[in-house]
């Protein structure tokens, strides 16, 4: 089917309107009209080829909320008119041990990303949610709970699951002591989710100006990372640290904050990190780990969890033709919300 979106055609060029074809509906496919799409830092990195693997033209966007327009003959879960969502992946082998465990993001054959992935049947490059329509196989389509605000819930599909998954993996619950580094798109969701799980949450930031927002999100206090005395006073204080910093940095200064057997989980930066020091690891049997989004079942779980606990991301709605300005703001950093594109602003013709 013919559709229109916004694409980057080169690393140094702004995104612009782009007409293209979505694949014909297969028996297991769902054809979705995209209503809203969140703007993730990964979209910017990919558009500008920061990771070195972008193939152009690229249509970003993996925080997708929409309405079902059509379903294939084999689809049983969804019907025309249903409100649905699509996150960071649109396919996997569904046959390996990881897929069977509901960890499709770790598929042994490689999961297919919502954009910049390779379609397992046609071999074509996938194109994401900065568009009017998307076609996705049923197993990778999610249900949007009725009480979630469609205009605000899109970032749950990446920022939400990216922070929810490690909180679940490390069994966060009442009594857990959790710190969250950064109060951006990922960080503010990590605070809200951890607080709803019953954890005692501390936000960590370089700026004391973030205190009001941190407390509003559910943190009990704000720790200023460039205040050496404050950092020392919080030594051995946390069971888990969620590090959402999206650029190259040294994670070593945060390690002494962990208690014995504590873990710092990296969810922000993809790529090189600054040289680290093993001493804090050795002295406390502490760990540094990474975490990549979550499986489809867990992504549905976080949507349902947010509906149950009335959790929504902090968002700023933009029009499709404002995406390049939004990217510039992302580059500047210091955003404590997520941009969401209202796709009604994108004309089909």
Structure description:
By secondary structure, this protein is of the alpha/beta class. The chain folds into two domains: 189 residues, Medium-chain alcohol dehydrogenases, catalytic domain (Quinone Oxidoreductase, Chain A, domain 1, Alpha-Beta Complex); 132 residues, 3-Layer(aba) Sandwich (Rossmann fold). It is built from nine helices and 17 strands. The strands form four sheets. Strands 3, 4, 5, 8, 9, 16 and 17 form a seven-stranded mixed beta sheet that branches. It has a six-stranded parallel beta sheet with strand order 12-11-10-13-14-15. Strand 11, helix 5 and strand 12 form a beta-alpha-beta unit. The longest helix has 14 residues. The chain starts with a strand and ends in a 7-residue tail after the last strand. Keywords: Metal-binding, Oxidoreductase, Zinc.
């Amino acid at each position: 089917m013919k559709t229109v979106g916004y694409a980057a055609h080169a690393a140094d060029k702004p995104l612009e309107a782009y007409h293209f074809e979505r694949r014909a509906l297969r028996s297991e496919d769902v054809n979705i009209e995209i209503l809203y799409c969140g703007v993730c830092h990964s979209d910017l990195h990919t558009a500008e080829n920061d990771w070195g693997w972008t193939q152009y033209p690229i249509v970003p966007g993996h925080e997708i909320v929409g309405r079902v327009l059509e379903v294939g003959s084999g689809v049983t879960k969804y019907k025309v008119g249903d409100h649905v969502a699509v996150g960071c992946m649109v396919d996997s082998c569904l046959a390996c041990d990881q897929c069977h465990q509901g960890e499709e993001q770790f598929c042994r054959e490689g999961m297919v990303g919502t954009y910049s992935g390779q379609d397992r049947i046609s071999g074509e490059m996938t194109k994401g949610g900065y568009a009017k329509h998307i076609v996705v196989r049923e197993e990778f389509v999610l249900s949007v709970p009725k009480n979630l605000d469609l205009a605000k819930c899109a970032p749950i599909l990446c920022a939400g699951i990216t922070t929810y998954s490690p909180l679940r993996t490390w069994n966060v619950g009442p009594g857990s002591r959790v710190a969250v580094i950064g109060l951006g798109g990922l960080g503010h969701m990590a605070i809200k989710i951890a607080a709803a799980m019953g954890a005692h949450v501390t936000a960590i930031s370089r700026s004391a100006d973030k205190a009001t927002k941190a407390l509003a999100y559910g943190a009990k206090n704000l720790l200023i990372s460039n205040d050496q005395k404050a950092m020392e006073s919080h030594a051995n204080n946390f069971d888990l640290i969620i590090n959402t910093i999206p650029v190259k940095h040294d994670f070593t200064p945060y390690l002494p904050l962990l208690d014995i057997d504590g873990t710092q989980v990296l969810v922000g930066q993809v790529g090189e990190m600054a040289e680290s020091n093993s001493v804090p690891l050795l002295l406390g049997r502490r760990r540094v780990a990474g975490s990549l989004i979550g499986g489809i079942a867990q992504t549905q779980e976080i949507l349902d969890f947010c509906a149950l606990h009335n959790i929504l991301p902090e968002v700023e709605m933009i029009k499709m033709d404002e995406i390049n300005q939004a990217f510039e703001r992302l580059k500047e950093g210091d955003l404590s919300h997520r941009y969401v594109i209202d796709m009604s602003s994108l004309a089909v013709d």
